[in-house]
Every structure is written in structure tokens, then in C-alpha cells.
């Protein structure tokens, strides 16, 4: 068993004040903030920016981060950060800004390309502080070794996996998640559920990831629908941030599996948001993985709905997705039937995730799984 380190984490009412204290302790002078257009206009972001600017610190904000950031976009961010002479990177947002921030923190001080970082543990050593603040409860990018970028030429997502992009500090501020649209609350919450359930069934699972995964599943089952229906419920929001964190720690140390692999072509070829793509692929992939893993599936069902019955897992998750008003099929989100074959071919290249899936997946399996999702 190999466990990755955690960043220092601040959560709840003390998290925002802690940001100012940490920036002072680090004695940084020029902070490059990566965020997205929606978050940059929020009241919460304005307060964070004021904290960052305290003690005469200089701040430059890059707010044009797109969903599924491309290799080219993070290159442009890094160029701007170098020109600004930043000595700290602060990411504020959902998975896309946080993932991009991780890459900027490396490229800022190393003359290399984003493409060269793709792979496992090929990042050079980070030499500046990296601080992350999630505004969604799903990706857990604030604690993981992963950054997912889009290759616009090959039309597929690629992963940077390195201990060097684990942030130094993470701040879980429930108020920062309140402005999320309901659809984002739903999609990111199901993303966290996929992280936890895949981690629990991964071939690389271990006692640590098992504990974190089951705790995350229980928190999600108890709080996601409330956060969706009552956006201002700060307790539900905080619990979802913790669920996302636990799920992140689980898959950080065991890996996600085929659900994420099958979601990659949906994002790369059709720009389906990550959480929504995972949601669409959950049922057919877990159906494929059921045989031989009934005990694990029953454990997940127990955490999800209180029934230690493997056959209860998929219907319970599907009902939750329905309650969250999420699309249930690939056809609903506009995927052409003619693209099922190229997506099947594409998913078979995601060997990093397919290799740890509990059950083998062949090309014919991939075709059947996409057909069932359609």
C-alpha cells in the first residue's frame, strides 16, 4: 500500500480567515489566481481577492478558464503567470480551474510544456506554493495527484498524475459553493459518488481508500439531494465538501476505474461536462462489474440506502439521478448513434483506468456498454 500525502486542510467557518494567515506565513508577494467567469463575479470571490491583496500583496486574476481546459489554455495561463512574476498560485473554482492551477504551478518555474507533463510522475519539482479553494463539491482536485486536460487535436482528455501537483493547502469554504447552479451541484455530487464507488471496487483498493470511500458514499446519500433542493443549506454544503474530500482521498490512493474511462470520450469528443459524463456511464459500467464483486457492491448499497444487497445499488443511484433531474441516456444529451463506435475505439486507449477496473473490458464490451448507455 502506498498512500500519498495530504495538503493541510482548513474547513468550515475558520477556512477563509486561515487563507490570510497562510499567505502571510508564506510571505508571498505576487499571487496568480486562476478561476472561471462565473466564480470571478461572485461575492465570495471578491472577499477572497481582498484577503489575497492584504499586506500590499499584488494579485493577477485569470478568469477565463473553460470547462475541460485544453493544453493550449494552460500554456497561456502559465505565460501570463511568468510575465506577472508570480511567486504563488491560488486556484478558486471547480475542477477545471483547480486542475489548471496545478499545471501552472509547475510551468511557472520550469521551461517545459503542458504536454510533457502528461503521464505518471514526470512533473519536475514544484518550487512555489499552491493553494486551492473548491467552489464545487465533486472533483476533489484540491487533494489529488491528478490534473485532467483536453487534447484538442486527439479529442480526448489526458491525465497528469504526479505527487508534485498535490497542493500545499486546501480551504473548504461552504459559502463558496452556494452560488453553484443546481445542475452543477447535481453533476459534481454524482462525480464524487463515482469517485467513491469506483475507488471501493478498484483493483488498487486498500484499507485506507475503503474507509474513505464508504464514508463519502454515506455523506452523499444523506446530503446531495438537500444541497440541490436547498442551495443555502450550509450544513449540507459543508457535508458535501467533506464527502468530495473523502472520495478524493479514496481514489487518490486507489484510482478510479472504467466509469471515468468511458466518460473521457464523452468529454473529449462531445464536451459533455465531466460529472454529467460519469453519471451517464455509471449504471452500464457497474452492471458490467457486478459479477464477482457482489459483496463490494452490497457494501456500497448499504452505505447508499441501508440495504446490504448488491441489486439495490444501481437502482438507488439511478433514482437519485432522477431526483436530481439529470439526463439518463447518451441520446438525451445529443450523442449521435454513429459516434458509439469511435468512442468505443477511443475508450480502449485509456489503459490507465481500464487496467484497474475489477472486471476486464474488451472492445466488444465497450460497444455493449456504450449501447446500453445510449
Could you please describe the fold and organization of this structure?
The longest helix has 23 residues, at 207-229. By secondary structure, the chain is of the alpha/beta class. The chain is built from 15 helices and nine strands. The protein has helices at residues 15-26, 37-40, 43-53, 71-84, 95-107, 182-201, 207-229, 234-252, 258-270, 274-289, 294-305, 313-323, 340-347, 351-354, 363-373, and strands at residues 8-11, 30-34, 58-62, 88-93, 119-120, 130-134, 146-151, 156-161, 169-172. The strands form two sheets. It has a six-stranded parallel β-sheet with strand order 1-9-6-4-2-3, sandwiched between helices. Helix 7 packs antiparallel against helix 8 and helix 10 crosses helix 15 (363-373). The protein is globular, with a radius of gyration of 20 Å.
Strand content: 5-15%
Element pattern in H and E: EHEHHEHEHEEEEEHHHHHHHHHH
Report the biggest beta sheet as strand number plus sense, adding barrel if it closes. 6 strands, parallel
Number of strands: 9
* Main β-sheet, spatial strand arrangement: 1-9-6-4-2-3
Amino acid at each position: 500500500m502506498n498512500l500519498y500525502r495530504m495538503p493541510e486542510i482548513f474547513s468550515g467557518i475558520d477556512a477563509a480567515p486561515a487563507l490570510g494567515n497562510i499567505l502571510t506565513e508564506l510571505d508571498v508577494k505576487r499571487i496568480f489566481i486562476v478561476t472561471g467567469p462565473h466564480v470571478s463575479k461572485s461575492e465570495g470571490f471578491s472577499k477572497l481577492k481582498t484577503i489575497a491583496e492584504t499586506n500590499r500583496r499584488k494579485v493577477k486574476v485569470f478568469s477565463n478558464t473553460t470547462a475541460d481546459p485544453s493544453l493550449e489554455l494552460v500554456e497561456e495561463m502559465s505565460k501570463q503567470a511568468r510575465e506577472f512574476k508570480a511567486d504563488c498560485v491560488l486556484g478558486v473554482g471547480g475542477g477545471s480551474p483547480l486542475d489548471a492551477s496545478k499545471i501552472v504551478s509547475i510551468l511557472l518555474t520550469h521551461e517545459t510544456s503542458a504536454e510533457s507533463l502528461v503521464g505518471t510522475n514526470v512533473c519536475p519539482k514544484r518550487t512555489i506554493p499552491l493553494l486551492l479553494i473548491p467552489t464545487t463539491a465533486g472533483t476533489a482536485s484540491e487533494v489529488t495527484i491528478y490534473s485532467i486536460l483536453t487534447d484538442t487535436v486527439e479529442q480526448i482528455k489526458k491525465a497528469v498524475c504526479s505527487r508534485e501537483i498535490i497542493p500545499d493547502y486546501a480551504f473548504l469554504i461552504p459559502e463558496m459553493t452556494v452560488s453553484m447552479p443546481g445542475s452543477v451541484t447535481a453533476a459534481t455530487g454524482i462525480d464524487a459518488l463515482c469517485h467513491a464507488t469506483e475507488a471501493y471496487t478498484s483493483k488498487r483498493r486498500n484499507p485506507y481508500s475503503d474507509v474513505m470511500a464508504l464514508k463519502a458514499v454515506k455523506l452523499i446519500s444523506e446530503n446531495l439531494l438537500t444541497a440541490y433542493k436547498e442551495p443555502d443549506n450550509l450544513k449540507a454544503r459543508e457535508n458535501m465538501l467533506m464527502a468530495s474530500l473523502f472520495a478524493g482521498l479514496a481514489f487518490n490512493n486507489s484510482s478510479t476505474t472504467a466509469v471515468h474511462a468511458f466518460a473521457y470520450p464523452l468529454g473529449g469528443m462531445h464536451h459533455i461536462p465531466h460529472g454529467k459524463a460519469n453519471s451517464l456511464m455509471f449504471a452500464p459500467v457497474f452492471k458490467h462489474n457486478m459479477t464477482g464483486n457482489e459483496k463490494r457492491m452490497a457494501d456500497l448499497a448499504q452505505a447508499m440506502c441501508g440495504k446490504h444487497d448488491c441489486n439495490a445499488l444501481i437502482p438507488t443511484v439511478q433514482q437519485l439521478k432522477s431526483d436530481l433531474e439529470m439526463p439518463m441516456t447518451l441520446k438525451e444529451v445529443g450523442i449521435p448513434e454513429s459516434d458509439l463506435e469511435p468512442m468505443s475505439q477511443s475508450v480502449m486507449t485509456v489503459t490507465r483506468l481500464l487496467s484497474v477496473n475489477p472486471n476486464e473490458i474488451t472492445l466488444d464490451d465497450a460497444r455493449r456498454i456504450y449501447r446500453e448507455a445510449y
